[in-house]
Write a structure and sequence with these properties.
globular; about 180 residues; 8 helices; six-stranded mixed beta sheet; alpha/beta
Amino acid sequence: MHIIIDGYNLIRQSDSLRRLERLSLERGRGELIRRVAGYRRLRGHKMTVVFDGWMTGPAEEERLREDGVHIVYSGRGETADEVIKRMARAERGSEIIVVSSDREVADSAVKAGGVAISSPEFEERMGEEETKGMPDDDETPEEDDDLPPISGTRKKGAARRRSRRERQSQRRLNKL
């Protein structure tokens, strides 16, 4: 699975990253890359973060790799949104997830056969993975052995089956 992240969109949707970005643009980007790299180590997905470089960036698109995370700076005259749309179209047919709260970028990813997730939702999932990966000192599994098994209730009524596209999207999101 390939996760493509709209870098500045995620930074500006996150309270903690936005604070760092106000101190220094480099600190905000660095912290985002650090978090994404940690998530990549836990989940093993291919991760690409795309940043705008269209105003003052390099004349041509610049690609770097840091701690296993692919970093793309759009070339002068091209926005990160355009780069993300192009990447999604190029990977049509493969499993991609685009992280952006920009409706146009999200719609483009879905049209290319991918899944879109909002920046705050992805940040929340990254945080959940970080806490899963950390040992929990308060956990005492011995106490749970004394509890009786939980029995569920059977639901009544006709089930509504989601569309094929909805089921595929949910399967991809579950892999996050």
